[in-house]
Amino acid sequence: MKLFLIFISAAIVNNFVLSYFLGICPFVGVSKKVSSAVSMGMAVTFVMTITAAVTWLIYHLILVPFNVVILEYVSFILVIASLVQLVEMFIRKISKPLYDTLGIYLPLITTNCAILGLALFAVLREYGFIESIVYGIGAGVGFTLALVIMAGIREELELANVPKHFQGAGITMIVAGSLALAFMGFAGLISI
Amino acid sequence: MAKKATLMREYAKGLWDENPVLISLLGLCPTLAVTNSAINGIAMGLATTFVVVSSSVIISSIRKVIPHQVRIASYIVVIATFVTVADRFLAAFTPEISKALGPYVPLIVVNCLILGRQEAFSSKNSPGRSFLDALGMGTGFLLVLFVLGAIRELLGSGSILNFTILGDWFMPWMVMILPPGAFLTLGLLIGLSNWINERRAEA
């Protein structure tokens, strides 16, 4: 039951994009079309799940026993960067179609703050191994959800008459504000 | 004289013409996340300025010995080191602010503004110029964070930097200090800056 709550909390109530402001760059950059939003979301969910597992192992099996927690940021970011490279090579080897869908988005993920944020939050909340993984999946699903909703709205916006100075980034931010307002309705739904 | 003017320009371009947040849309995550009060905006702006200036100077000093293939990884290690320094510093001297900013201080590591400056500027220019460039970008970032934080704090709690500005008659707009307020305010600021730029271009 606790795992389910962690999942719902990460995916909806404390949505990474709309309430923690993590991963805003891809949120603004890759939300022009629903299809690319879905691919980006899948790539992020995939990397987040693996990152959550690997950073948990590193933190609890290396950093804490050797008393070098101060290296947390340096080691996490290096692990994430190399992990993304590995995942990219791995996907290219096993599945060409999957690589063609996710390929161009994978390198971008390294600088997606949602990934590092996930690793840091999981440590901060003292999650266990399985909990961290569920947290990673939930955060990825929440990211995908926000991205796809946003892309759907932006496809419609193409047809709308937006004031000249707000075209592009301006209107995207204001739409995101309305979305965040809607997601605030979930606040207090569950608390863990 | 001409050279001096270009050095000045190196600094000034980050303030408005190439402002990292309003024009290049870099570093949006911390911009939105920590600006629920003006003081948090200033603290985050100063921490980011410190990191971008120190890493720019270091990276442009060693730019000739970094192999091209591993440059991004090298930049990130340098940046992460300075972020650790900034994080420990804030935790030691201003524990309250450090607590308010929470994990957004370590997240400076992945602030695309910083990596962007290394890739676009420090890897090609001398330490002196990189210093000015980074300082300009940092100041521009700090200014936007302060303005955003001040607007949200004024409308959300009726004060700026904890000084009450609006009296008891004012009903605080709670939404401004919550996440939606961040998106709305930044959207309006971006629109405003586009409008000003167009007016300037016409004039």
Q: Which term fits the overall shape of chain A? A: globular
- Judged by helices, strands and strand pairing, the structural class of chain B is mainly alpha
Structural class call of chain A reads mainly alpha
Low-confidence stretches of chain A: none
Helix coverage percent of chain A:
over 70%
The total number of structural domains of chain A is: 1
Mass-distribution shape of chain B = globular
> Could you list the spans of chain B in which at least 5 consecutive residues all have pLDDT below 50?
none
What strand line-up does the widest sheet of chain B have? 1-2
Radius of gyration of chain A, CA atoms, in whole angstroms = 17 Å
Helicity of chain B, in percent? 55-70%
By DSSP, the count of extended strands of chain A is 0
Largest interface: A-B, 43 and 43 residues
Strand coverage percent of chain A: under 5%
Observed structural traits:
heterodimer, A: 192 residues, mainly alpha, 0% strand, globular, B: 203 residues, two-stranded antiparallel ribbon, 9 helices, 69% helix
